[in-house]
Every structure is written in structure tokens, then in C-alpha cells.
């Protein structure tokens, strides 16, 4: 090998930069020092040099057979290629990711948030069929939950917190919380601290969805949407006069519907002769129109409380 040939070889191998990998046709106007990793079935001046590195020097192509371990980059890119003895392969770093102290993606992890991600979205998808996201806690009294925040202040939380009952709760300030739904293991029934309680208009945090009550005048159910249902069983009508049912809970006005069902075997008809927001007058008649009967009746009144 002449001195000049040795210099050309050094120019090729030291910090080898390839113009292409796998090309089979020589460029028509190569630049001096331009190098290519030739692919299979090369043609033209590269015929018979498959797999070699062709470098253009002084108007001629010079060829070298790469050895295992040669390292090269491709002009204009940042990838690194290593020759494995038969072909060029993209280098991949071997990094042990087990037991790392933390991972921050576009942000910084810390001792509590050891996996931190700052991005518009996070995608978790299946490999083959389904996909599960597991949140495990050490003991019953600990917490495993999803916390939703506004400016780092909690606004909603769902999970098993302080016990093994699944619950959903909300907060307006991150410190005072209202539980809106709860179901425990083996219960099969959803309960909530404010599902049944005192309804309000307008409704606010902690107000109930249903309100119920009962007494000597019957029972009632109030809904947060304004619906009110009052009922009484076995109400005794009066013979020859109207009987007044004082409602167990007042309606917003006298505009509500009342249904009366006769009890017993006495043929009779019950009618509503008057009603107000707080009471209903019921009269009963036999089938020929006399008011000498006084059957017991079941009464249901449905309307609005606001």
C-alpha cells in the first residue's frame, strides 16, 4: 500500500460519514471524498463490490470491505450505524431501565412523583387483547385513587380511600370534600352520603337528591328536581260530608294531581271536591250518587314543591 493509498484509507475510515447505505448505482457527479455503503446487485463502476464502502477520490472509486465493528453516520442525520460483519445495522443503546430512581418525560420527576409526564395526552393501549391499569395500596386504611386537580388543588377523586369501598367525591377548594357516590365490597348497591337527605332549591354542594318523611298524615318523597309525591294508605272518608287530608308536605301551589283508590268491597266512588297547597278534600258516593258511604281510600298526590 502506497503512502497516498494509506492516507485515503484513513480519510475513509476515521469518522466515517456515508452519503448513503444500500445504494446500488453510483452517483453521476460525486464529490471528492464522498462515500457510500454499497447494496446488493450493484451496477456500473460498483458492479462486483456488493457490501463494500466506495469512496470517490481523484476521479476514481476506491473500495474497502468493512469489518465487524466499523462505525459510521449518514450525512445529514444523527443515527449511528455499526457493521455486524455482514451488513450495517442501526446502533441501539443497551440501557437497564429496571429500578431507576425516577423517569421524567418532558418534565422532572421527584421523590413522590417518580414517573412524571408533561404532554397534551397519555396513551396506554393493549398488546394483543385487553389492557389494565393497576393502582395498588398496602392496606385497607391506605389510599388507591385517581385525583383530578385544578392548578394543583384537588377537585375530584375516585378510588378506594381509607377503606375498601369505591367512592367518588368532589371539592371546591381542595380541602373540604363531599362524597357523591359509594359502594362497598359485596354490597351491590350504590349509596352516597347525600343521595337521601335534605333537598334544597337552589341545590348546592352536599344537598341531597331525595328527601323522605312520614307521619300521621302519610308519607312524602321530594326530589331535587322539584317533584313531590305525597301518599296515605287507608284514609277514612266521611259519610255525608267531605273529609280533609292534610298533606304530609306542602306543594308549591294547588296545581297537582290526586288519585284515589277505594278499599274494601263496598261499591263506591271517591272524588276530590277541593284542594290547596296543604290539603285535599275527598267526598265518597255510592253508585246511585248518595253520599251515605264512607269507604277507606288510598291517596296519591303528585306535583311540585318549587
**Which strand order do you get reading across the main beta sheet?**
15-16-17-22-19
Main sheet record: 5 strands, antiparallel
Q: Examine the coordinates and then state which fold CATH places here, giving the name of the CATH topology of the largest domain.
A: Immunoglobulin-like
Note the run of SSEs as H and E: HEEEEEEEEEEEEEEEEEEEEEE
From the N-terminal CA to the C-terminal CA, the straight-line distance is 104 Å
Look at the structure and give the mean pLDDT. Answer: 91
Strand fraction band?
A: 35-45%
Give the SSE layout.
Elements: H1 3-13, E1 16-18, E2 20-23, E3 35-38, E4 53-57, E5 60-64, E6 71-74, E7 80-83, E8 88-90, E9 103-105, E10 115-117, E11 143-150, E12 153-161, E13 166-171, E14 177-183, E15 210-215, E16 218-223, E17 227-236, E18 243-246, E19 257-262, E20 269-275, E21 279-285, E22 296-304
Task: Write a concise keyword list for the protein shown above.
five-stranded antiparallel beta sheet, DUF2793, Immunoglobulin-like, rod-shaped, 3 domains, Putative tail fiber protein gp53-like C-terminal domain-containing protein, single chain, mainly beta, Gp53-like_C, 306 residues, 1 helix
Your description of this structure?
The protein has 306 residues and is mainly β. It has three domains: 3-90, no CATH class; 138-193, no CATH class; 213-304, Immunoglobulin-like. 4% of the residues lie in helices and 40% in strands. The chain has one helix at residues 3-13, and strands at 16-18, 20-23, 35-38, 53-57, 60-64, 71-74, 80-83, 88-90, 103-105, 115-117, 143-150, 153-161, 166-171, 177-183, 210-215, 218-223, 227-236, 243-246, 257-262, 269-275, 279-285, 296-304. Strands 15-16-17-22-19 form a five-stranded antiparallel β-sheet, with no helix packed on it. A hairpin with a 4-residue loop joins strand 7 and strand 8 (88-90).
